[in-house]
Amino acid sequence: MPLYPLFADLAGREVLVVGGGEVAVRKIEALLHAGARVRVHARALHPTLRGWEAEGRIECAEGEFDPAWIDAAWLLVVATDDGAFNAALAAQATARRTLANVVDDARLSSFQVPAVIDRAPLQLAISSGGAAPMLARRLRERLEIELDPSLGALAGLFARHRDVIRERLPDLNRRRRWFDAVIDGAVPALLRAGRAEEAERAFAAMLDPAAIAPVGGRISLVGTGPGDPARLTLGALRAMNLADVLLVDAGVGEAVLALARKDAPREPAQPDPADCLSWVAAHARAGRHVVWLRPGDGFREPASARFAQALQGMEWPCELHAGVAADDGDAPGASRPAGA
């Protein structure tokens, strides 16, 4: 069953942890980092936990376990090696509508703790739904290498200037284009080079009202190939992720659509091509990035090429992303498939 991804704000909120060994130490350390008030019940406490109790970082509940303790908790974490006791705690949590994580037992858990890549305030979480935690950890290891530590500083810039960004860019489409310009511009490169002050100045300069470019319409024509998401080109994926609206032809599969920007409205293409051209032009005229998806090689096939020619003759920038078939990945003019 698919899980619903959720980032919880636990600052100042109580979390009950049952168990006092090394596994509990790791879970509690992450909870304290998130600002949670941690209450621990265990028959024996790891020396680290004893130290944290003495420092006042955690509270320990003595005596026999009282199920009523769950009522005060936002989350329950169970880290004992007693399977019957764990199952009883999970049942108590379910009866009280409290989310519970039973370590290494997805069947008993109502929430999973993902593998996390921390580039504060940016966080990436990877979950296998409890099916293969080692796979999630291996992916985290790879991404830790690929994702530069400066991403946290970049996210911090956006966070500190959030109110100014919203004030100067109230239009969502214009704001999205501005974000793209910053992310693809000099600011990340300066941060990667450790030149934080220069990055701050460059960021502020891009927020100068005189430097903010007016929003303009844009059209992307995407061939989705045989329907295999792995055959989409990098350019096609980028266009789908930046779309303001999507025009979808019959035959474009759900697996491909799942990769498009989630909040971009989707409109089925009408049988009359003239209606489609009018629809695309209307959205481009309103300053939106329109992405038209067609199966196969979409807009390079003879029957459809006239649509591309008509749109490329309009006043807005119009780019074409060829559909890559399974046997023509190296064909002239085809951009490289994602992941190839």
From TrEMBL:
<dbReference type="InterPro" id="IPR006367">
    <property type="entry name" value="Sirohaem_synthase_N"/>
</dbReference>
<keyword id="KW-0520">NAD</keyword>
<dbReference type="InterPro" id="IPR037115">
    <property type="entry name" value="Sirohaem_synt_dimer_dom_sf"/>
</dbReference>
<feature type="domain" description="Sirohaem synthase dimerisation">
    <location>
        <begin position="150"/>
        <end position="207"/>
    </location>
</feature>
<dbReference type="Pfam" id="PF14824">
    <property type="entry name" value="Sirohm_synth_M"/>
</dbReference>
<feature type="domain" description="Tetrapyrrole methylase">
    <location>
        <begin position="219"/>
        <end position="326"/>
    </location>
</feature>
<dbReference type="Pfam" id="PF00590">
    <property type="entry name" value="TP_methylase"/>
</dbReference>
<dbReference type="GO" id="GO:0008168">
    <property type="term" value="F:methyltransferase activity"/>
</dbReference>
<dbReference type="InterPro" id="IPR028161">
    <property type="entry name" value="Met8-like"/>
</dbReference>
<feature type="domain" description="Siroheme synthase central">
    <location>
        <begin position="121"/>
        <end position="144"/>
    </location>
</feature>
<dbReference type="InterPro" id="IPR036291">
    <property type="entry name" value="NAD(P)-bd_dom_sf"/>
</dbReference>
<keyword id="KW-0627">Porphyrin biosynthesis</keyword>
<dbReference type="InterPro" id="IPR014777">
    <property type="entry name" value="4pyrrole_Mease_sub1"/>
</dbReference>
<dbReference type="InterPro" id="IPR019478">
    <property type="entry name" value="Sirohaem_synthase_dimer_dom"/>
</dbReference>
<keyword id="KW-0560">Oxidoreductase</keyword>
<dbReference type="GO" id="GO:0043115">
    <property type="term" value="F:precorrin-2 dehydrogenase activity"/>
</dbReference>
<dbReference type="Pfam" id="PF13241">
    <property type="entry name" value="NAD_binding_7"/>
</dbReference>
<dbReference type="Pfam" id="PF10414">
    <property type="entry name" value="CysG_dimeriser"/>
</dbReference>
<dbReference type="InterPro" id="IPR000878">
    <property type="entry name" value="4pyrrol_Mease"/>
</dbReference>
<dbReference type="InterPro" id="IPR028281">
    <property type="entry name" value="Sirohaem_synthase_central"/>
</dbReference>
<protein>
    <recommendedName>
        <fullName>precorrin-2 dehydrogenase</fullName>
        <ecNumber>1.3.1.76</ecNumber>
    </recommendedName>
</protein>
<comment type="pathway">
    <text>Porphyrin-containing compound metabolism; siroheme biosynthesis; sirohydrochlorin from precorrin-2: step 1/1.</text>
</comment>
<dbReference type="GO" id="GO:0004325">
    <property type="term" value="F:ferrochelatase activity"/>
</dbReference>
<dbReference type="InterPro" id="IPR035996">
    <property type="entry name" value="4pyrrol_Methylase_sf"/>
</dbReference>
<dbReference type="GO" id="GO:0019354">
    <property type="term" value="P:siroheme biosynthetic process"/>
</dbReference>
